[in-house]
Design brief:
By secondary structure, the chain is mainly alpha-helical. It is built from seven helices and two strands. Helices cover 56% and strands 5% of the residues. A hairpin with a 5-residue loop joins strand 1 and strand 2.
């Protein structure tokens, strides 16, 4: 079971792409899709969901496309994840107390709640700005990574 679903991974990549372009106008979905290895049709659907959630803004026309709706330091990874895949829960029992009749006496649930809180806290504090810095730092630290992997 993947906690981070494929579409969410693609949405994060698209948002990071826009983070690198922040303040420089809009970027086309076709450009984002090509640069991030996402099918154009899927990229369109993801960008529409991000737009509907208010995380990106769009503009029409030949120079149109998408741009972040606010500063990358104000958009969290958790926001993006929840827009694409809904509430992030380790187990169904954590969705509500009604989801499991054993919630009051379950010893596993106690630990899952703790892990859930840590995960949600971490992801709600991790911003696109921070994520883009760690991504660009990894690229700078190891620019030949892809070349070595092919050998």
């Amino acid at each position: 079971m993947d906690i981070l679903r494929r579409n969410t991974d693609y949405a994060l990549r698209a948002m990071l792409n826009l983070t690198g372009h922040y303040g420089n106008g809009s970027k086309s979905t076709r450009s984002i899709a090509a640069q991030e290895g996402i099918s154009y049709q899927l990229a369109c659907k993801l960008m529409q969901r991000l737009h509907d959630a208010g995380l990106v803004q769009s503009s029409m026309g030949p120079r149109g496309g998408f741009r972040l709706s606010r500063d990358p330091s104000k958009i969290t990874v958790l926001e993006i994840m929840e827009v694409i895949q809904g509430p992030l829960r380790l187990n169904r029992c954590l969705l509500s107390v009604k989801a499991c009749p054993r919630h009051k006496r379950c010893t596993v649930r106690v630990r899952l709640v703790e892990l859930q809180e840590r995960m949600s806290s971490y992801l709600s504090q991790l911003t696109l700005n921070e994520l883009s810095k760690s991504t660009s730092g990894a690229r700078k630290a190891n620019p030949n990574r892809m070349k070595r992997a092919r050998r």
